[in-house]
Amino acid sequence: MTALVRYRLTTLLLSQRYLAPLLLFTALVTVLTSNDTGPLTATHAAAGLAMLLAATWLTTTLAGLDDPPHRAVLTAATGGHRRLVTGTVLAALTACLPLTALGLVLPLLVGSHSPTGADLLLGAEAQLTCACTGATVGLLTARPVVRRQGHGLLLALALLLVLTLGKGLPPVNLLLTRLSGHHRSADLVGSTALLLALAVALLGAAAVAAHAVAVRRD
Q: Which of 31, 48, 125, 206 has its CA 20 to 30 A from that of 200?
């Protein structure tokens, strides 16, 4: 599995298709947190929203890197659809880890904050929650689940709007609402960990669905 994840990430790097989501993430975090002197919880909300978009983009890109003939060869070489889907998910989450670090450090550079351990832990939890949710959206809107790229884009936009604007909808809207309405990170670490667990469960369900579709269509 390690070799497969390394291969997927290497292919992504060589294709340079990681640049657009990376620039989007960096630009959003910089603009939304520049000269910010308020509570870090609101900053984490901005970084989480940027991570949601970037993770969706990265996962869609990774899932759609291969054309059908190459995908068939890769599936056979890796031992089946399940391993290929799992490798794609792990590669997407691995790609999100540097963004998580950037999302924690960049607001401290462009704003004025004195972070505590609870602040950094909450920020990591928030971004990983949004990363897992974005990966879920990416899996469900990319090949082989959605074969047409235009249809996948429209579906991804619709799902992202529902997840961010659906009042009280976990994990994303509920997370962003809590982060925007509270000023003490220590009070939110526990509840955010539960939302992260929910996001991981949703990603697992999406991987199962993507595997089932791949087995039926390929």
A: 31
- Quote the pTM value: 0.94
Say what angle helices 2-15 and 81-110 make with each other, to 10 degrees: 60
Question: What distance in Å separates the CA atoms of residue 180 and residue 71, rounded to the nearest whole number?
Answer: 42
**DSSP letter, residue 129:** H
List average pLDDT for each run of 10 residues in the chain, which is 218 residues long: 90 94 96 83 95 97 84 80 92 97 92 88 97 97 89 95 95 96 90 98 96 81
In whole angstroms, give the CA distance from residue 55 to residue 22: 10
Helices (H), 64-171: 68-78, 81-110, 117-141, 149-165
Answer whether 218's CB lies under 8 Å from 72's CB: yes
Neighbours of 152 (CB within 10 A): 20
What's the token pair of residue 77? 């070489």
Cα 70 from Cα 68, distance rounded (Å)? 6
